[in-house]
């Protein structure tokens, strides 16, 4: 892709991979079928047209693949080189699918834990089908992700993405226990955010590099890129929770503060306004306290 000059329209990264995104969306729908009708409709819920989300992670991964797939040396016959690259791309698409299944599984469980009623502009699965099916559908997606991962026959990649699931659980637990442990620091926030959001993006970027046959050094650069992008993504997501609307977010705003979750905007405000500490300590079980804290943001 030629570099655009500053006065030209910015490139839409989603549009660059839109064809591949629809291939992945179709494949995902076929990967989550179940013989049990209730489970089938729960598992496919967030892969249906209109409930698919932004596709941020698959887009990042497909662009990472485009950047890292090197042409084969000239000595390799053209048709071999092209089939090799096609195979490499298919395996990388598989990483995008696995990542999206793990992501959706985490959203399903997250909405149960938070008792959320809206997600991606529609009713959350726990709201529509109940907590039990939402938990089971999340487990089902994780199992399908494991099977797809095993089919890649690359133990390093299996280990990377299996560890991500542990990281998601670790980040969520850190978030849940932050207040009780009095760990309301920026350092704690960034570690939690790495586990909760950035680990999936960084490790899947690394997996894409490994499948492209890149060196450990390049794979680590892909990891660092994904880590920084993931942290930035969550920081923006946390700001949007204060500034967005239900229409723009696809879910209710102010959900973090109402759940007593201390994110970066509050941590910055606490540094500037020490009086905010005593409001935070009282908890956000009543809306008066939420309103009092919001005065400082
Ligand atoms: C079962 C894998 C698993 C995990 C359980 C609940 C939990 C542990 C982890 C929660 C992780 C979580 C939901 C992190 C938030 C990540 C985040 C920023 C989600 C929103 O991402 P978007 O905006 O969503 O890309 P869409 O809907 O567009 O895909």
From TrEMBL:
Entry superkingdom: Eukaryota
GO terms of biological process kind: isoprenoid biosynthetic process; ubiquinone biosynthetic process
Alphabetically ordered keywords of this record: Isoprene biosynthesis, Magnesium, Metal-binding, Mitochondrion, Transferase
Cofactor(s) listed in the protein's UniProt record: Mg(2+)
Magnesium keyword on record: yes
Chief location bin: mitochondrion
GO molecular function: metal ion binding; prenyltransferase activity
GO CC annotation terms, alphabetical: mitochondrion; transferase complex
UniProt similarity note: Belongs to the FPP/GGPP synthase family.
Protein name per Swiss-Prot or TrEMBL: Solanesyl-diphosphate synthase 1, mitochondrial-like isoform X1
Organism: Canna indica (Indian-shot)
Biological classification of the source: Eukaryota, Viridiplantae, Streptophyta, Embryophyta, Tracheophyta
Full-protein interval shown: 71 to 367 of 421
């Amino acid at each position: 892709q030629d570099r655009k000059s500053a006065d030209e329209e910015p490139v839409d990264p989603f549009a660059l991979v839109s064809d591949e995104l629809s291939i992945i969306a179709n494949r995902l729908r076929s990967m989550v079928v179940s013989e049990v009708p209730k489970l089938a409709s729960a598992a496919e819920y967030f892969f249906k047209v209109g409930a698919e989300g932004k596709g941020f992670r698959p887009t990042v991964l497909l662009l990472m693949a485009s950047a890292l797939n090197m042409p084969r040396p000239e000595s390799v016959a053209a048709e071999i080189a092209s089939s090799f690259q096609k195979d490499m791309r298919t395996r990388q698409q598989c990483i995008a699918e696995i990542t999206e299944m793990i992501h959706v599984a985490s959203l399903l469980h997250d909405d149960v834990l938070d008792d959320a009623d809206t997600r991606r502009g529609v009713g959350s699965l726990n709201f529509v089908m109940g907590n039990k099916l939402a938990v089971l559908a999340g487990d089902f997606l994780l199992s399908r992700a494991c099977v797809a991962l095993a089919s890649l026959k690359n133990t390093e990649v299996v280990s990377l993405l299996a560890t991500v699931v542990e990281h998601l659980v670790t980040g969520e637990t850190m978030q849940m226990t932050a207040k009780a442990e009095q760990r309301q620091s920026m350092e704690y926030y960034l570690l939690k955010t790495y586990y909760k959001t950035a680990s999936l993006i960084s490790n899947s970027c690394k997996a894409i590099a490994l499948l492209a046959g890149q060196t450990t050094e390049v794979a680590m650069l892909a990891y660092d890129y994904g880590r920084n992008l993931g942290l930035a993504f969550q920081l923006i997501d946390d700001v949007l929770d204060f500034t967005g609307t239900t229409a723009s977010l696809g879910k209710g705003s102010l959900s973090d503060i109402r759940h007593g979750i201390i994110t970066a905007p509050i941590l910055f405000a606490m540094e500037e306004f020490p009086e905010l500490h005593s409001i935070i300590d009282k908890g956000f079980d009543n809306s008066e306290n939420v309103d009092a804290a919001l005065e400082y943001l």
